[in-house]
Design a protein that fits this description.
There is one protein chain. 43% of the residues lie in helices and 17% in strands. The strands form four sheets. A seven-stranded parallel β-sheet has the order 3-2-1-4-5-6-11, with helices on both faces. The longest helix is centred in the first third of the chain and has 21 residues.
Length: 322
Amino acid sequence: MNTILVTGVAGFIASSVASILFNQGYLVIGIDNLNDYYDRSLKLHRLSILQENPAFTFYRLDIENYDALELVFKLHKITAVVNLAARAGVRYSIKNPFVYFSTNSMGTLNLLYLCQVYSVGKFLLASTSSLYAGHELPFQESLPVNQPVSPYAASKKAAEAIAYSYHHLYGIDVTVLRYFTVYGPAGRPDMSIFLFIHRLMNSAPLTVFGDGTQSRDFTYIDDIARGTVMALSLKGYEVVNLGGNHQVHLHEVIQLLEEYTGKKAEITFREFHKADLKETHADISKAAHLMDWHPETGIEEGLKRTVHWFKTNWSWVKNIKM
């Protein structure tokens, strides 16, 4: 059986990717440092589900720790690395840029170096639509992304560059996936949809940066996880967008959430942050061509499923620190 190393495995996307890998017969080695960037109860919830599967082995460690990482490579015959460990969040990266580069850039270098040393032939890197700032829609992978507008985006661009160099030098097959605003059950509490539902169900006011007309190419977690696993089959060096292929304005999301939660939103508007993008929209023609990947869950159904998860788990989710 092939063994896949999944980093950041207690995270939102990585835990869903690991579940699909189990279903396809892979052994999964998961690593995560379980940091407190957001409430650890969510990470422990996701991790507890994965640990029910006998095909899963977990190590609590940081991808910045080269020596600890190397022990994992020595203990297991790893055939592919899915690097989903990252410091995320545009605004927090402005406050603490150093940790973003140490994790997103140096951590990626540690993994690539070990792939070269231990003859791991496939490396998949999670990247971001934030790199497309300043370009016209829809965002195509061929666009130059040389002017990142946040330390977060810059650290991801550095990781992409490092990954390309290891493909060029050592022939490692590298796929870079640029994700577009991922949401869904057990998501990240620093993302707008999780935050809005949590506050609505607590009858608390919402904060919107801007006037609510900004739009995102929201992408449901199941589509992202499925596309990530499909990308393991790609050869060479490829950069591929994974997005919902449909722009939705933030005020439309709030209206749908009001309907599905049965709560009326009280909204406080604040100044739009200059490190954020006004709108995103993925050109996903490359994903369709290379992998026959298409998003299957629209925003209405995705939000319904997410609100249902909140209601089902509200006994403990209500206490999550935001």
